[in-house]
Amino acid sequence: MNSLLIENGRLVDPSQQHDRVARLLIIDGTVKAIDPSDGELPKDTQRLDASGRIVAPGLVDLSTELREPGRDEDETIASGSQAALAGGYTSILCSSNTHPPIDTPGAVEFVRQKAAKAHAARIYVTGCVSKQRRGEELAELGLLVEAGAVAFSDSPAPLANSALVKRALEYCRMFDRPIFDRPEVPELAGRGVMHEGRESLVLGLNGLPTEAEDLAVARDVRLAEATGGRLHVGPVSTMGSIDLIRRVKSRGIKVTASVCPHNLSMTDEQLRSFDARFKVHPPLRSERHVEMLRAAVSDGTIDAIQTGHMPRALEKKMDDLDLAPFGMTSLETSLAAVATTMLHSDHLDWSTLIQRMSTAPAAIAGIPGGSLAVGQSGDVILIDPERSWTVDVNAFHSRCSSTPLAGSQLQGQVTHAIVGGEIRYVR
Amino acid sequence: MMSAENDLDLPFPAAWTRSHLLDLETLSAEEITILLDTAQRLKDATENCRRKLSLLSGKTCANLFFENSTRTRNSFSLAAKRLGADTVEFSSSGSSIAKGETFVDTAKTIEAMGVDWVVTRHSTPGTPHLLSRELDCCVLNAGDGPHEHPTQGLLDMLTIRQHGKPFVGLTVALVGDIAHSRTARSNIWGLKKLGAHVIICGPATLVSPRWEELGFEVAHSLDEILPRCDVLNLLRVQFERQVARPFPSIHEYAALYAMNGERMARSKSDILIMAPGPINRGVEITPEVADGPHSVILEQVTNGIAVRMAALWLLSGAAERAAGGAATGASA
């Protein structure tokens, strides 16, 4: 019998409205008790002193690019899942955009085997919506569910074909699995590399207009309403998206949305450096959009915060802005980036932050996690909320070192990550 | 830099500290004026850019052009040679770029051969800024996509100044494909800083209303603004940069925006007609205007050499000062 007692920490679990100093007992991978008496502790219980720390359910990421197979110069399943733990993510949904893409049961099995070998964060598989991610025919969604896929997405490619989106939402009702779409109308996005606005105008860079996202969200939510399918849009980045999502939610349509930490903390003015590390998708928007996104996370219009982890090898990011790929490594900085931005601007408290980064994404994906209630799996993180640290890309577990946060000062750091009652990461 | 056999006593301005020329947006009015004053001195001293000096002898200028160019490349080459420097020419076609090397590595390789300036043109905005962080030598932007073309902006301003027109109170219209024009993006900042009123004119698909937020007048009718203009800078329609054609036809564009004899008749009597070239005769300008008495298009070309001589001399002097080298020219 494996027994772990985490004591003296501040238990923050929004699923149970806990925010108090408490003891947490995990036996054989499952939460057994909160505040057990000493008499309830099995012999040989391992004790972990969490004084000064927050004890929270492990974070859950809705979309993590692991890049293996096919693009392992950017990231591997082992490096990505280790980076996840270091960032406080005990469960991640890996994206389907590997080479070959995850559109067959065999491809799902490959990830599952590699994940088991990596023995770090739990990895759940997102299958492709369409065969080969071509956006034309449905992939074998039912067989992918049987193989273990928990959600479907062609991300980062948007689902451009409206008929395909409708079919996928209808078909997936049979399995109660969500369709994730990164909303964008490709012909409006064109060759854009940054937010279309005053900055792109001055810099002469091709812009990504907000309406490219707004129109796709409008179409997606309408199709979700028509089909009754489970739709998740994200990451979103515009005021228009927020406005649409808020309106459909008030009408009772079940649509969820997420945002990335960098879209909450940085604006398009960063592109004045012409530094490709700021080339991310969705792009860094202007201050007005960022303010609205923060407010929407705060009031729950945006349900979840996802990392937007799109690792790309440094040599690829060292090119000019037109050629350098979108993306950044963000598993290891997301929690602190959100805490630094959102706690200090009073948009969130710790409990709501954990809700947006753990409880809500677990519910959206329909996977275990996001709660430390008795009977739930013992996926726990310890956070030192006061720890101030400098982002050192050389200390990353991710293979990718490209982040606009390199050298930044952030506050709040994960010190322990526990998966199924087993301490798998200690800083 | 002033050698014994030097033939020009050109004081190095104390206020000039830059060793790169990347854009005009971040230059001060004083720095722009220094560039224009220096260019005028060099133009006068070289008898209209024909005589050769030895101010920069022993130095080497590399022209790294990742995009086609005739006039700018030759202008930079001649500017370097007129100051006694050597030049290295590089074109991306048939180069290591074709073998998969990145432009940054190509630039580093050329720099390692011992060059003092890298003059670069590239189709992507920001590439000179990227090189200025990666290279130790002076970097000059000879056009980065639709972003900026600072020496073009400077030569345009030098030409206006030579015609005795003070910038304060001057109305300059930039007409045409503003969306894809690096010339426009350098002119607007330079002219604004020196006090001119700038009108940005063209089809609504090529002229964003956001320019108004930045303090510029936006117009879509050339005929309406024409009577107010002291200078018209006619920008080429850059078909090669456009994803989809932003207006119905060339015929319609020419009808609305081409400077022709009829429009000349309704202009101010001393209006200056400028164009950065290459010009599309019959599209943005008719031959009678291009070759007419108000056209200063060829003066612009001559001034280009003077401006580039000034830029090379000033940047190199600042770099030497920063490196603790010998004083450049006579003391300021």
UniProtKB/TrEMBL annotation, chain A:
Transmembrane segments annotated in the record for this chain: none
Keyword annotations from UniProtKB, A to Z: Hydrolase, Pyrimidine biosynthesis
Molecular-function annotations in GO: allantoinase activity; dihydroorotase activity; metal ion binding
Residue stretches making up the Dihydroorotase catalytic domain: 52-238
Alphabetical list of SUPFAM superfamilies matching this protein: Composite domain of metallo-dependent hydrolases, Metallo-dependent hydrolases
Top EC group: hydrolase
GO cellular component, one term: cytoplasm
An annotated GO BP: pyrimidine nucleotide biosynthetic process
InterPro entries: DHOase, DHOase/Allantoinase_Hydrolase, DHOase_cat, Metal-dep_hydrolase_composite, Metal_Hydrolase
Domain of life of the source: Bacteria
Transcription regulation keyword on record: no
Protein name listed in UniProt: Dihydroorotase
The organism of origin for this protein: Roseimaritima ulvae
TrEMBL record, chain B:
Amino acids binding carbamoyl phosphate: R71, T72, R121, H149, Q152, G277, P278
Superkingdom of origin organism: Bacteria
UniProt EC number: 2.1.3.2
Assigned GO CC terms: cytosol
InterPro entries reported for this sequence: Asp/Orn_carbamoyltranf_P-bd, Asp/Orn_carbamoylTrfase, Asp/Orn_carbamoylTrfase_sf, Asp_carbamoyltransf, Asp_carbamoyltransf_Asp/Orn-bd
TM annotation in the entry: none
Top-level enzyme category: transferase
Residues where L-aspartate binds: K99, R182, R236
Pfam families: OTCace (PF00185), OTCace_N (PF02729)
Pathway terms, separated by semicolons: Pyrimidine metabolism; UMP biosynthesis via de novo pathway; (S)-dihydroorotate from bicarbonate: step 2/3
Catalyzed chemical reaction(s): carbamoyl phosphate + L-aspartate = N-carbamoyl-L-aspartate + phosphate + H(+)
SUPFAM superfamilies to which the protein is assigned, alphabetical: Aspartate/ornithine carbamoyltransferase
Keywords per UniProt: Pyrimidine biosynthesis, Transferase
Signal peptide boundaries: none
Gene Ontology annotations of biological process type: 'de novo' pyrimidine nucleobase biosynthetic process; 'de novo' UMP biosynthetic process; amino acid metabolic process
Occurrences of domain Aspartate/ornithine carbamoyltransferase Asp/Orn-binding (ranges): 169-314
Family the UniProt entry places it in: Belongs to the aspartate/ornithine carbamoyltransferase superfamily. ATCase family.
PANTHER family in UniProt: ASPARTATE CARBAMOYLTRANSFERASE, ORNITHINE CARBAMOYLTRANSFERASE, MITOCHONDRIAL
General function of this protein: Catalyzes the condensation of carbamoyl phosphate and aspartate to form carbamoyl aspartate and inorganic phosphate, the committed step in the de novo pyrimidine nucleotide biosynthesis pathway.
Oligomer and partners: Heterododecamer (2C3:3R2) of six catalytic PyrB chains organized as two trimers (C3), and six regulatory PyrI chains organized as three dimers (R2).
Protein's name according to its UniProt entry: Aspartate carbamoyltransferase
Name of the gene: pyrB_2
